[in-house]
Amino acid sequence: MENQSTQHTAGLTSDSTEFSRDITLFGGISILAGIMIGSGVFYLGSYVLIRSGMSMGLALLVWIIGGLVTLLSGLCYAELGTMMPKAGGGYVYLREAFGERVAYMSGISTFIIGSSGSIAGLAIALPQALTSLFPMSELQCKLIAVAVVVLLTAINYRGVKFGAALQNVFMVGKLIPLVLIILCGIFMGKQSPDLTPIPAGGASIGEILSMVAFGVVATLWAFEGWTNLNTISEEIQEPRKNIPRAIIISILAVTALYVLFNFSIYRVLSYEDITSHIAAGDFFLGTAAANALFGHYGKIFVALAMAVAIFGALNGSVMVFPRTYYAMAKDGMFFPSFTKLHPKYHTPTGAIIASMIVSCLLIFANNLDQITSLVVFSGMIFKALTFASVIVLRKKYPDLSRPYKVWFYPFSVYLIILIMIGLCINTLMEDPRTSLIGLIVPLFGLAVYEFQLRRKKKASR
After folding, report:
1. Strand, helix or coil for residue 325
2. 194-253 pLDDT, tens per residue?
3. How far apart are CA 137 and CA 121, in angstroms?
4. Cβ atoms within 10 Å of 206's Cβ, excluding its own
5. In sequence order, what DSSP letters do the residues of 36-73 get, joined into one string?
6. Residue 93: its pLDDT value, please?
7. Residue 431: which residues within 8 A CB-CB, separation 6 or more?
8. How far is Cα 121 from Cα 359, in angstroms, rounded to an integer?
9. 348, β-bridge pairs
10. Per-residue pLDDT tens digits for 394-438
């Protein structure tokens, strides 16, 4: 029995793989930052500002704190990824910490809602970002969305090296307009924003702390996507070094980008302009700042920048998500065809095609708001459990090598788990219908698992 346990842990910690290790450190950073930085950079600052009592100084502080919370979350994945550098990421950690049932529920939710929904949502958002330049009907947007998903599926089918190279190009492409807005805003802007971290009219320490907590929740949406590198652990060069490096560098870089981008907006738009835009329901302050900086061309500039940002995030998603289905199939808990790797490209072709099909179905079945709500709620539940697996696995496998460990353990892990629970409760209250759907899918996965388990038991008698 002890020998079997030793063999099991050795398999989890081994660097051997059938995949091609074509992703470099820069490629890993491009994948994570490329998925994190989407169209949200242009409008999420409004929500953070509102939740910060319209205090610019407090809003920037909230962005920094949100980045630090995300960094602590990322270090949980860095510890898990360097300890178990296996394809599948969160699915593998949940399986080892909580058993096959929880892992299967997570995998099914990912396949039906989480990952496929993320791809569908980004695909729909891409043509919608261009509607200000090229008016399109809802059907036309969805047809373009499907075409883009099929195109990126074909690209990533031909190998992770090709997909990663495309990700690198679009990562640089999306940074150019954002950095241009930041530099022009900071050095050409004529406003002198009040950065005192106290809302107008004053507030007690308790009220300020409440605003900070509520504002940090909004920033976490902007950092969404940092978990995805672990899913392709078996395709990363020197994963024990490059996984934590890529996670830390990308999160710190994206945090700096968000802080500077919002500061540049405050340098360009007056406080009165910002409040009037938000009061009118126009939350795209990044667009307003670009219009102020570049005049008539600002609208075109931002639309193209948003499209490039979304395309990069979409390519990264199409690349990484099918690896979870591959890991499930290797455990005998998904279609056997998902375990097959292309003899030349070394990609899980069956899982990639299945991901494309489900994503395209979701594009036609839902609108962007519905897809986003489903993805967010479903993801938060299993993300909280993944954080908890850090604690469970330290007790279960105390002797396994952990090249990187979570800072301030266990306080930091418990804090992150509480934040995820709070987000779940808030989403359940704000959108109970969609949240309940998000709960039904993993319960459906549990029912399927139990059915398969009983069938296996009968067959073995």
Report:
1. helix
2. 888 888 777 778 888 778 877 887 787 788 888 888 888 888 888 888 999 999 999 999
3. 17
4. 8
5. H-SGGGGTHHHHHHHHTTT-HHHHHHHHHHHHHHHHHH
6. 93
7. 373, 377
8. 9
9. 341
10. 999 998 888 888 888 899 899 889 888 877 777 677 667 777 777
The 10 Å Cβ neighbour count of residue 214 is 18
Helix (H) or strand (E) holding 314: helix 297-320
CA distance 48 to 278: 12
Instruction: Write phi, then psi, for 22 (nearest 5 degrees).
Output: -105, -5
In 3D space, the residue among 141, 88, 146 whose CA is nearest the CA of residue 119 turns out to be: 146
The two structure tokens encoding residue 240: 């024990």
Amino acid code (one letter) for 425? I
Torsion of CA 168, 353, 89, 363, to 10 degrees: 80
Measured torsion, CA atoms of residues 280, 286, 292, 295, in degrees rounded to the nearest 10: -110
Q: Going by C-beta distance under 8 Å and a sequence separation of 6 or more, which residues neighbour residue 446?
A: 101, 104, 105
List the alpha helices (DSSP H) in 238-282. 239-268, 271-279
Q: Which amino acid is at 196?
A: T
What 3-state DSSP class applies to 420? helix
